[in-house]
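My main concern about presentation is that the manuscript never shows what a single data entry looks like. For the editor and my fellow referees, an illustration may be useful. For illustration, here is how one protein appears when written out as sequence plus structure tokens:

***
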Amino acid sequence: MTNHTEADTVRAHRVKQFCERVGISASTFWKYVRQEKIRTIRIGGRVLVPHAEALRILSEGVGGREGR
């Protein structure tokens, strides 16, 4: 049997925790969302960052979509 960590089960991140993890302010986060550099989803009125998007940003950086 394998050990599962919290990262294995997280499907989306709350904005505050995402900003802390990536090291950006909330205002910078919202600026990047408006510029379509960070993709978000809404669930029950809550804005979340999908886990795959968080992984992309952690590996490529926020500007990773510029070439697309």
About this structure: The chain has a mean pLDDT of 85. Residues 51-60 form the longest helix (10 residues). Residues 11-63 form a domain with the Multidrug-efflux Transporter Regulator; Chain: A; Domain 2 fold (CATH 1.10.1660).
